[in-house]
Amino acid sequence: MADREKVVNDTCQPADSVIERAIKTFGVENQLWMVIEEMSELAKEICKHKRGFDNANNIADETADVLIMLEQVKIIFGISRKVNERIEYKLNRLENRLAVKGNDAGGEAESGHCGGGDG
After folding, report:
1. DSSP conformational letter for 15
2. Count of structural domains, the chain
3. Domain presence at residue 119
4. Is 111 part of any domain?
């Protein structure tokens, strides 16, 4: 449970003023486009990894960029609390699915990824 609380409560608090300044300086529309760009760059690096590239450092860099941009999304839309609530809900759901999977003798889980399939 402590790990889950860390995920839910761990924010970029020391960087909040930098993140807010970025939104004010570059504007909401530009930062929303930037979110898409950064997520695309992360997807590209993951695709390269799947093709055999040794690019863990690039994946780490792009992951950091995406996390910073997602903090901006939370501020722009005023959804920090809601996101934390949804993380808690989805982690609980995942935990339940894993428990069912653990009781299932080798069967496939309902969903193979962490977020499930229902958004």
Report:
1. G
2. 1
3. no
4. no
**108 assigned to some structural domain:** no
Tokens representing residue 77 in the block: 């839309």
Question: Per residue, what are the HEC states of 23-85?
Answer: HHHHCHHHHHHHHHHHHHHHHHHHHHHHCCCCCHHHHHHHHHHHHHHHHHHHHHHCCHHHHHH
- Return d(Cα 92, Cα 40) in angstroms, integer: 28
Q: What is the pLDDT of residues 58-87, one digit of tens each?
A: 999 999 999 999 999 999 999 999 999 999
Note whether 98 and 43 are within 8 A (CB).
no
Do 32 and 76 contact (CB within 8 A), yes or no? yes
Angle between helical axes of 56-77 and 80-103 (0-180°, round to 10): 130
Residue 45 lies in a domain: yes
Each residue of 31-51: pLDDT tens digit? 999 999 999 999 999 999 999
Query: Can you give the residue range of the structural domain that contains 85?
Result: 2-103
- With vertex at residue 117, the alpha carbon angle to CA 61 and CA 64, rounded to the nearest 5 degrees, is 10
